[in-house]
Amino acid sequence: MDTSQIDFNLLVTLDTLLAERNVTHAARRLNLSQPALSTRLARLREIFDDPLLIPVQRGMVPTQKAMELQPRLHEALEAVRQVVVTDSAFDPSRAKATVNIAASDYTQSALLLPLIRALRDEAPGLRVAWRGLDLTTLRVQMERGAVDLAITRPETAPDQLRMRMLCHEDYVLIARSGHPVVTGRIDLDLFCILDHVIVSPDGGGFTGPTDDVLAAMGRSRHVALSVPGFLVVPTIVARSDMIAVVPARIVRDEKERIQVLSPPVRVPGFELAMIWHDRTTTHPLQRWLRDRFAALVAKI
C-alpha cells in the first residue's frame, strides 16, 4: 500500500463510518454531505482494496478486514489527537466538537438540560447529541466512539468502564393541583386506593420500588396506567385524578400545576453516576465536560 495516498481526514472518515455504520449518521457527525462522504468511502475502498462496509437493509456492516482495522485505527487517531491537544491549554469557548451523551429520558430532563444551558454560554461551539441509554450495547458504543459519556445507576454500569458518582435522587409523590381528595398531604389508606401511574422502561410493567415497600407491609396499591418514560407522567397527573411516585428532580419546575408531596411510605432513592471509556479519560474536552457537569449537578 502506498501510504502517501492517505490523509488524516480519510482515516477520520473511516473511523466514524465504522463507529456509526450508517452513511447518513456519519455524514452528520463529520459535517459532510452524503455525496462527499460516499466519495471518501470509495477512495478508502480503493486504498485498502476492500469494500470495508457493505450496505444492508438498515445501515452497513463492516467486512472482516474493517473489523480488524477498527480498534487499531481508533487507537492511532486518539494518539494523534493527544499529540495535538496535550501541549495546549483547553479553552471551552473555542472548542468545536460533537459530544454524544447517553441517558434515560428522566436524566435528560433532570440533569442534562442544565448542562446544555451552560454550554450555550461557555462552549457555544460544542454540539451535544442526546442518545437513548442502551446498557446492553453501551460498552461497545463507547469503544467505537459512538457514545462519549453516559448517565446511569452505578449498579447497572457495564464492567471495564470508568465511573464518577454524581448525585443521590429521592422519590416524591405528585397529584394535580385542585385534586378532589389530595390536599397537601396523603395517608397510606388513600394512597393505596387511588389510581397510580407507573413508569416501566421495558414496557407493560405494573410494579416498581414502591410496590416492594408496600408488599413488605402487607399492602398494595392500584396501578391504572403503565408508561415507558418519566417525562409524560407530570402531564398525565396534572390532567387527571391519578397520582404517581417519581424522582424529585423531574418535577422541580412543575409546582404550579401539580402538588409535590412526601409519600406515606419511604421509597428508597437511588444514585446516579457518569460512565465513560478509558479512551476519553485524559482528553481535555471530555475531562472538562465531566468536571463541568459534576459541578452543575451539585448545584441542582
Structure description:
With 300 residues, the chain is of the alpha/beta class. The chain has three domains: 3-85, Winged helix-like DNA-binding domain superfamily/Winged helix DNA-binding domain (Arc Repressor Mutant, subunit A, Orthogonal Bundle); 92-169 and 271-299, D-Maltodextrin-Binding Protein, domain 2 (3-Layer(aba) Sandwich), CATH 3.40.190.10; 174-267, D-Maltodextrin-Binding Protein, domain 2. It is 40% helix and 22% strand. It is built from ten helices and twelve strands. It has helices spanning 8-20, 23-30, 34-48, 64-85, 105-122, 138-144, 188-193, 209-216, 233-238, 284-299, and strands at 53-55, 60-62, 97-103, 126-132, 149-152, 162-169, 171-176, 195-199, 222-227, 243-247, 258-261, 270-276. The strands form three sheets. The chain has a five-stranded mixed β-sheet, with helices on one face. Strands 9-8-10-7-11 form a five-stranded mixed β-sheet. Strand 8, helix 8 and strand 9 form a beta-alpha-beta unit. Helix 1 (8-20) packs across helix 2, helix 2 (23-30) crosses helix 3 and helix 5 packs across helix 10 (284-299). The longest helix has 22 residues, at 64-85. It is elongated. It starts with 7 loop residues before the first helix and ends with a helix. The mean pLDDT is 89.
